[in-house]
Amino acid sequence: MNPLRRHRAPSAGERLAPFRIVIAYTLLGTLLVFFNDPALHALGLDDEAHGPLRIAGGLVWVWATAALMFTLRRRRISADRRHESDLNARVNQLSCLYEVSRLLHLPGVLGEAALGSIARLVANAMPPLGRAEARVSLDGREAFTPGFRDREPMVRIPVVVRARVLGAVEVMFPEGPADGNGYRGFEEGTSLLEGVASQLALVGERQLAEREAMTHRERLAHMTRLSLLGEMAGGIAHEINQPLTAIASYAQACRRMIQSQCGEKPEVLDAMDQIGAQAFRGGEIIRRLRGFATRGERKRQPVELGGLLRDVVRLAEVDSRLHRIGIRLDLAEGIPLVLADPVQIQQVALNLIRNGLEAMDKVPPEKAAVIVRSRWRDDNMVEVTVEDRGEGVPAETERSLFLPFATTKTSGMGLGLSISHSIVTSHGGELWFTRNDGRPGTTFHFTIPAAPAGAVSKQDDGKEATT
Amino acid sequence: VKEPEANALPVPVVFVVDDDEAVRNATRMLLQSVGLAVETFDSADRFLASADVARHGCLVLDIRMPGMSGLELQEKLAARNATLPIIFITGHGDVPMAVQAMRRGAVDFLEKPFRDQDLLDRIQRAITESERRMGDRQEQARLAERAAALTAREREVMDLVVDGKANKVVAAELGLSERTVEIHRSRVMSKMGAESLAELVRMAMALR
Predict the structure, then answer these.
(1) A296–chain B nearest CA distance, Å
(2) Which sign does the torsion angle of CA A50, A56, A60, A63 carry?
(3) Which of A338, A392, A395, B99 is most solvent-facing, going by the fewest CB within 10 Å?
């Protein structure tokens, strides 16, 4: 049974029920006074002359005792009722606190739905003070019971986090506070609100800390992305030089052909088309780089993993040309969109691919390969694997593999795997590695949750994909 | 561009080896626009498999390619005794590789992106170098032919003479009379077609 039910007015029958005995005594006594006269007479106590007087005396006796009994009874009942109502109020207050703390311990950010439940719980715990409406706000979100009107609230308890007001618990009584409970009840109500407010402050603190951690992670991720691009600068310059070289040569060939009039017109036109195409190619490289260098403080969004991985492989080819190793992309069909920060996921994949390339430094190019695969798992996660044919992870570095600054390489800061790990974990996925079975090398795996079915991807390039 | 010379050197050909299709095609178009014969290859392997590396011309070679790199191709060509002059095309930051390539006998290198005139000038120089190397090679073949006509004794005399030894010393070393050495020496001069001792020395150096 819901302990939070509202009180309702009792019917007349219910109100009289506790006085059954008093009423019965009064009726019975009165009857006795009137009809017992013959019996008294038979006992020789009868006195004709004093009959009416005795009846009157009897009635006074009976009614006076009845009145006394009634008063005592009524006192008792009202005391009981007060106790019961106190108890109910306590039960409501306790369940309010219990429910609130249960809601607050749910993981993640406290949404409007949860705030709404808290507002209802608070309003329901107030009845000893009168019918109440409540509003609860925290960290830019708020919710209130339907009857809440934004006039001066009767009680307002601020939620204070790190000396800043981050929200409030507010209660108003549309019909004014109930009489008869006085100051004591009001104080109790207030302390309940204070209890809720301090619980909300804990949640606010947790949310702030989570947000700070996220900001730090994003900054670190951004920083390591930039440093990654720095490490790749040589390859990137080469990659941009290719179309520039082609453009320069085509343009100069055109000029000579036109000048000497020895070239055929279609040849010149073809060269000019090529100039355009190569300019676009250079632009594409820059688009990928710019996308990768952004701050990326974007929210998690449904993204098409295949496109992300294709872009990453193009970026990584900057390095693979250097290492003269091919990167193979093996994407499973029908993979749903994933819920991710696209840039961060690209960063993880690029990191793993580059690690794979570097792991094969001493492997002859014809035996070396990096294979990037994706697959959809039963648990609604999408798994990406990056396999290399390198020398494998040495046993002594295995334990510190995902720790920051634990690098075995001569370049880089040793943040790659640790930041990748924290990115994947913050997405609700996992990052781990396995040693290849029956052939040299290592395979790194990471998982990302699939986006809810029907989600639509909104990626930069404007291409839309649906699950 | 020079016309092929009368001494029957074939038309020079420019081999272009670059894995990047656009760069390859653009270079070909550029070189064709000035009337050069061009053959392009998308990898060092394919070049080695199908190009006639003994031909007159030059090789425009991308230093950084997947599979066999430009430097490896240079090594393989050297092992085959090919004289084809190589112009390396390098990217940003490949200077150490380019230095290595130059040390191993590349005629030049050019950083991407390059001016057409720079490439054409270098190709011109490389073709001249190729002519010279082809000429040297023909000359050497001629000399080798002549040297083959020398008798063992004449050969011995020539070796000692070009070492700068006087007839008397040569005679003593070989146990011959000075007169006999003189006869051998004049035969060597006429068989080799040398006008002077200096020319004979140059020929002997070329043969070594």
Answers:
(1) 29
(2) positive
(3) A395
Q: What is the pLDDT of residues B161-207, one digit of tens each?
A: 888 888 888 888 888 888 888 888 888 888 888 888 888 888 888 77
The answer to whether the Cβ–Cβ distance between A253 and B30 falls below 8 Å is yes
Report residue A450 as tokens. 């699939």
Specify the pLDDT at position A274. Answer: 92
Q: CB–CB of A257/A268 below 8 Å?
A: yes
Q: What are phi and psi of A342, to 5 degrees?
A: -55, -40
- The closest of B70, B21, B28, B12 to B45, measured between CA atoms, is B70
Pairing of strands B57-62, B13-17: parallel
- CA A250, A252, A258, A263 dihedral sign is negative
Q: At what angle do helices A233-260 and B21-33 cross, to 10 degrees?
A: 30
For chain B, how far is it from start to end, CA to CA, in angstroms?
34
Residues of A in contact with B33 (CB under 8 A): 252-253, 256-257, 260, 262-263
Question: What token pair was written down for B17?
Answer: 């080896």
Q: Which residue among A241, A252, A257 sits closest to B91, beta carbon to beta carbon?
A: A241
Residue B87: which H helix or E strand, with range?
strand B86-90
Could B93 and A238 be called an inter-chain contact, meaning their C-beta atoms sit closer than 8 Å?
Answer: yes
The SS3 assignment for B109 reads: strand
With beta carbons under 8 A apart, name residues in chain A contacting B64.
238, 321-322
Q: Token pair of A266, please?
A: 């279609």
A110's CB contacts (< 8 A; 6+ apart) are A103, A104, A138, A139, A141, A200, A203, A207
Cis bond leading into A52, ω under 30°?
no
Query: Whole-angstrom Cα distance, residue A15 to residue A69?
Result: 16
Burial class (CB in 10 A: 0-12, 13-18, 19+), B67: middle
ipTM passes above 0.90:
no
Q: Tokens for B177, please give them.
A: 């009379």
Integer Cα distance of A133 and A143 in angstroms: 11
Distance between CA atoms of B107 and B74, rounded to whole angstroms? 12
- Positions in chain A whose pLDDT score sits under 70: 1-10, 36-51, 127-129, 151-153, 176-186, 262-264, 296-298, 404-414, 458-467
Chain B residues whose beta carbon lies within 8 Å of the beta carbon of residue A262: 33, 35
> CB contact, 8 Å: B4 with chain A?
no
Report the distance separating Cα A238 and Cα B24, nearest Å.
15
The Cα A354–Cα A236 span in angstroms is 14
**Closest chain B C-alpha to A238 CA, distance in angstroms:** 5
Mean pLDDT taken over chain B: 86
Instruction: Report residue A21 CA to chain centroid gap.
Output: 60
Query: Which pLDDT score, from 0 to 100, does residue A40 have?
Result: 63
| Any B CB within 8 A of A247 CB | yes
Q: Cα torsion at A160, A162, A165, A171 (round to 10°)? A: -10
> Which residues of chain A make contact with B29, given a CB cutoff of 8 A?
249-250, 253, 267, 271
First to last CA, chain A: 44
pTM above 0.80, yes or no: no
